[in-house]
Amino acid sequence: MSRTTAAWVSMVAVMALGCGPELVASLERPIINGKACYSMESPSAVGIIFEAEVTSKAGTRTIHALTCTGILIAPDTVLTAAHCVNITKELQGTVTFSKEAYHISLERDLRDLSVPDPAQLLSGKPAKLPHDAREARTWVIHPGYSSSGWKGGLARWNDIGLIFLRRSVSSETPVTLITASEASQIKKDTRVRIAGWGMTVASGTDKEGNPADESGGVKFCAEAKITEVGKHELRIGGDSDTSRKCHGDSGGPSYMDVSGGGNAERVVGITSHAYNQTLDCTAGGIDTRVDAYLGWIDKEMKAACASGER
Fold first, then answer.
1. How many Å apart are CA 283 and CA 306, to the nearest integer?
2. How many helices (H) and strands (E) does the chain have?
3. Which of 49, 241, 245, 264 is the most exposed place for a label (fewest CB within 10 A)?
4. Cα–Cα distances in Å, from 79 out to 21, 62, 293, 298, 303?
5. CA-CA distances (angstroms) from residue 296 to 79, 198, 252, 306?
6. For the chain, what percent of residues have pLDDT higher than 70?
7. What is this structure's pTM?
8. Does the pLDDT of residue 251 top 70, yes or no?
């Protein structure tokens, strides 16, 4: 659900392919009514950068685009939404990409990768990757991922994926996942903390006069609350007075404090999609519940170890 990705693809289509195709529903989701994070806030949140080549009569061009947010759950493993590492298929029929790759970064300001620069695209030189970028060795999405037939509200998209990094992140401590025994604490009106590199306004312009499509790219944080609970998904935020997620925040975390021993902070949700596609970011967003997929996460992490991909 990423308007940031859509902006990149539209620009690539116009500059490199000579046409401007209509895009399907945008891929990502941003923090509205939040604030720019300090470096120590939500340190397990990471920006996800999509890399690919697009070929046309004008030649082959490489793009680097900030498309989503992710969550560091092990030094070499990032949890995110399935659609964040399924971009070439999500945009099938609009723009054809090759050599798909992903990187992650913990840098707070990734605006150079958020909004396409026409001159850069024409020159064939992509925006530089941040100095701390870690490349994905491989990635996997839930086999049941699908958004077909959705009519709004809570559903079951199975919108969850994992990225396994070539180099571990040693500078930050991975977040702890909610456990099955703690899941009963996930209730309506419970406070959560959210973070992401997405848009900060749903429409119009932000405080600096940037259009909505150009308002993302900086890590924002906010406090929000759970407004609806389903078996596989959660609704975070609601009306315009609440802090909400939006395009570019997809794959990002909702953190909750739990009672009981040990570190109290847990990641309970992964930003997935709008609550209402027509209302977009104005009616709150939907998270995939982490506790509903603990078995799948464990299985895939162990399989990656066994295969040498971790």
1. 43
2. 4, 13
3. 241
4. 31, 25, 11, 12, 15
5. 12, 27, 18, 15
6. 68
7. 0.82
8. yes
